[in-house]
């Protein structure tokens, strides 16, 4: 299961956090949580869905901790020379990546889950713990906002 799902989950976490090292930690924690849950209660109905939800929640928590650290004056440096960061910051992706950062957290999450993991609305709803209609409206608003930001860049 780790071989099949870790790579894509790390890439999702990088897109949500902007930090490869932090993303790897979040994914590792998600797999550890799945392992603990599996031992205590047996396998969840859908282990991949359990992992996706754990990774999204882990990213939220990590970003919350980063904001608190920033407010306390503790600096956080993002690895700028990591392989993922280099790929994401290439010229043709930089504008999209920057525009994505300006979206709300939920908008970023639904776009990453839809267009990176190719999840359908019901799967995204389960992952984020929201209704299917919330997913649909959030994707619509996120795409409109992203389009408007990218038009202003060009």
TrEMBL record:
InterPro entries: RNA_pol_sigma-70-like (IPR039425), RNA_pol_sigma-70_dom (IPR014284), RNA_pol_sigma70_r2 (IPR007627), RNA_pol_sigma70_r4_t2 (IPR013249), RNA_pol_sigma_r2 (IPR013325), RNA_pol_sigma_r3/r4-like (IPR013324), WH-like_DNA-bd_sf (IPR036388)
Domain RNA polymerase sigma factor 70 region 4 type: residue ranges: 96-146
Alphabetical list of CDD domains matching this protein: Sigma70_r4 (cd06171)
Keywords: DNA-binding, Sigma factor, Transcription, Transcription regulation
UniProt keyword annotation of Kinase present: no
Any GO MF annotation of the entry: DNA binding
Similarity section: Belongs to the sigma-70 factor family. ECF subfamily.
Protein name (Swiss-Prot/TrEMBL): RNA polymerase subunit sigma-24
Organism: Planotetraspora silvatica
